[in-house]
Amino acid sequence: MGDSQHLQGERGGASASRHRTDTTLRVNGKPHQLTLDHRRTLLDVVREDLGLYGAKKGCDHGQCGACTVLVDGRRVNSCLLLAVTLDGSEVTTVEGLTGEGPTGDGEQPHPLQQAFLDRDAFQCGYCTPGQICSAIGALAEAAAGHPSRVTDPRAPSGRAVPLDRDEIRERLSGNLCRCGAYPRIVDAVEDVIA
Amino acid sequence: MVSTVVGAPVERREGLEKVTGSARYAAEHAPPRRVWAWPVPATVARGTVTAVDTAAAMEQPGVLTVLTHRNAPRLAEPDDATLAVLQNPRVPHRGWFVALVVAETLEDARAGAAAVQVSYEPEEHDVSLTMTHPGAYVPEEANGGYPAATEQGDPERAFASSAVQVDADYRVPPLHNHPMEPHASTAQWDGDRLLVHTSSQGSTAVQTVLAGLFRLPEDGVTVVAEHVGGGFGSKGTPRPDVVLAAMAARQTGRPVTLALPRRHMPAVVGHRAPTLHRVRLGAEPDGRLTSLIHEVTTHTSRIKEFTEQAAVPARTMYAAAHLRTVHRVAPLDVPSPSWMRAPGEAPGMYALESAMDELACALGMDPVELRIVNEPETEPHSGKPFSSRHLVECLREGARRFDWAHRAPRTAGPLRIGTGVAAAMYPVLVQPSTASAGACPDGTFLVRINATDIGTGSRTVLAQIAADALGVPLERVRTEVGRSDLPSASLAGGSSGTASWGWAVHEACTRLTARLATHTGPLPPDGLDAHADTAGQADADSPWARHAFGAHFAEVAVDTVTGEVRARRLLGVFAAGHILNARTARSQFVGGMTMGLGMALTEGSTMDAAFGDFTQSDLASYHVPAHADVPDIEVHWIDEDDPHLNPMGSKGIGEIGIVGTAAAIGNAVHHATGTRYRELPLTPDRVRRGAGF
Ligand code: FES
Ligand code: FES
């Protein structure tokens, strides 16, 4: 790939490197070869090595969901993953959700990003990228038939689970919003289902 | 004529940046050669640092320096003692920062901090607040500058001789703000000039404080707070992160970012102090109050007196000829409490509105009617007339929409379902600010003011105010906020931001309009501008008692097997002057009510007596409401035409949503179960333990 980058950035690289390993990540469609400190989480890689600050750090402990990104299409708390373990993975952050505009000259928000705008589904915006990535992951899980705690146990397995408001609430409960935008986040998610 | 845009549901101007991830918060400004800092918190609750062994930390790869009280830059003495970090060896509470490691990477800094060895001379500590704590005293003032104690009539005697009495104690635990963005600062020096990106509710104040601490001229310090991931009071004034980042940057000659680890936050960013309440209500058989006594005991730290003004709402709410309110505060070896959304009103109205519900039950009276019967003619404490007060209308409107008339409790399997009501109140606060408005030759207008957008949408609402004042379409107005080199302004706190900034913006735009009216010919290349300063105007004494009011209605289900309480419906009706942006205002009301739901059901911190530490120090143990906890929340408002406020006719809306929610939910739990709980939060263990079912 012509745009492949090898980063042993001064930020990551100046630290004496007793435990570092070459790792390749494909992030938002673009390959990155990185020499990574084994302690570095995926969250810190996307933020500090790749400058993708859309992934937020709210707790660094898997307790808030602000850092949610997609790894190979599945939502994860990126603060809980050591990036060296993800060699060869495909990572999508909130920045990778926008598409080309109709004229190909600008960024077109993903329908869910647009729904968040339409519904005013945020205030401070700090939890928002995580909510959006998490909802995209949750929609895929439901489509694949994954049940949640509130799914009717009699629902046929393997079939797509329809998402009502309670399902959406349950499935997004790993994403905290201290501004309390929850009802409108549910509205926004419903908008893209409808 | 351009139609008015004030009040319209205008979209947030920075919305696209926030949903696409391009909005930058304080820790996300990465100047070249930027390094990281990680603090070391004290592990004793009281004592003195006797030694800091930094050798092992300095050997860690990437560590540049370890700051301690011995080698840290000397600061001028701050007004706020919590900012005197690394200045002396005293440890006033557990979690106080005793060292700071600066390293090339975040991982290096964290490892370095773990390797710092601190020795202490510990002392006996006391972190346990009781109503009869011998150290408690009545301060001169409670937070907000309110007198700590007031008395009119003979409340004790009137209470003793009243026909119906309620005498109840309520407890609200310590609560944590926990904005989703941790406190964070990136500091860089250029010679003697300091540039800081920080997560703050008001960067003018940060600039002033940093200039003082580092002995710099104010214009030598620039503070930027472009996007702020919530604050809820905890970022109202500078916190230690910004001071430490600036120190570390000075010491290392490198730009430094310090983002507080979540678990460090409860000890150093302020918290809502616990409040122990005794409320006595004496009433006639028709429900009319004769005596109202609200006594509050709370804690503060050893280094700062902060008294949560929880008895203050009782001075405004109800007509009682005999009225006493008093605050007592006990300095303990605890972290310094500070502002958390509606300090005073939130816990105070929990207690008062719970007691009103108890009184309604004792009288066999509808709790909505009881409040209406006690509607005062003038503000009970001050005797001032209300500039506007539509509490009764909020109650009636809410009751109608909620179908309060058909509120009989019911049972559904193991669930008991009940409803509750509570009033809400928040004072109208406003601060002087400055602003400029400019007309540009390209036909646009530029409004500049150091307002802060902590999620309220201030860029947007200020543009609306400006567009109306200028009589131009909204799209032609640009707003610049969030930098201390803009015209100075007050902070986003006390629900005063929009009123304070909007007033200055309105004034600047009005002056610009006048200038433009007399200007002939094309605009000069630099355009024309006008400046406004509302000092002396915005802060002038008012002959009016000015408050926003509201009413909360809640329906809960209590699981008699597990003790779990779930809110099924929340409905709020508010009267807060003119609502300036229907869209963002609704989000603020809902957000406040959500935090009130947390206060009622999930949020509670405890001081561990042995260790002197908050037990619930992270988001796994301190439960802020999650999606599944929050039902659909209905919000309505009654538009008020109040000429005694500001040019926009607005009251603040950022805090009133949290005021009264917890009481409405607690009252609903009583209605559902017949059990009166008087301690928050209503967690399953507590509900099960007290259960009469
Ligand atoms: S930052 Fe990863 S879950 Fe909070
Ligand atoms: S929008 Fe502020 S935390 Fe969700």
From TrEMBL, chain A:
- Domain 2Fe-2S ferredoxin-type: from-to ranges: 21-97
Instruction: Give TM regions.
Output: none
The segments labelled Disordered in the record are 1-32
- State whether keyword Metal-binding applies: yes
Alphabetized UniProt keyword annotations: Iron, Metal-binding, Oxidoreductase
User: Is Lyase included in the keywords of this UniProt record?
Assistant: no
For this protein, the record's CDD domains field holds: fer2
Q: InterPro entries attached here?
A: 2Fe-2S-bd, 2Fe-2S-bd_dom_sf, 2Fe-2S_ferredoxin-like_sf, 2Fe-2S_ferredoxin-type, 2Fe2S_fd_BS, Aldehyde_Oxdr_Iron-Sulfur, Beta-grasp_dom_sf
- Tell me which domain of life the UniProt entry assigns to the organism this sequence originates from: Bacteria
Pfam families noted in UniProt: Fer2, Fer2_2
Give the protein name, as stated in the record.
Answer: 2Fe-2S iron-sulfur cluster-binding protein
Q: Which organism is it from?
A: Streptomyces spinosisporus
From TrEMBL, chain B:
Read off the Pfam families from this record. Answer: Ald_Xan_dh_C, MoCoBD_1, MoCoBD_2
Name the SMART domains for this protein: Ald_Xan_dh_C
Keywords (alphabetical) are: Molybdenum, Oxidoreductase
Query: Which InterPro entries does the annotation name?
Result: Ald_Oxase/Xan_DH_a/b, Ald_Oxase/Xan_DH_a/b_sf, Ald_Oxase/xanthine_DH-like, AldOxase/xan_DH_MoCoBD1, AldOxase/xan_DH_MoCoBD2, AldOxase/xan_DH_Mopterin-bd_sf
Kindly indicate where the leader peptide sits in this chain.
none
Query: Aldehyde oxidase/xanthine dehydrogenase a/b hammerhead domain: from which residue to which, for each copy?
Result: 20-124
Q: Under which name does UniProt file this protein?
A: Xanthine dehydrogenase family protein molybdopterin-binding subunit
Query: What organism does the record attribute this protein to?
Result: Streptomyces spinosisporus
Q: What is the lineage of its organism?
A: Bacteria, Bacillati, Actinomycetota, Actinomycetes, Kitasatosporales
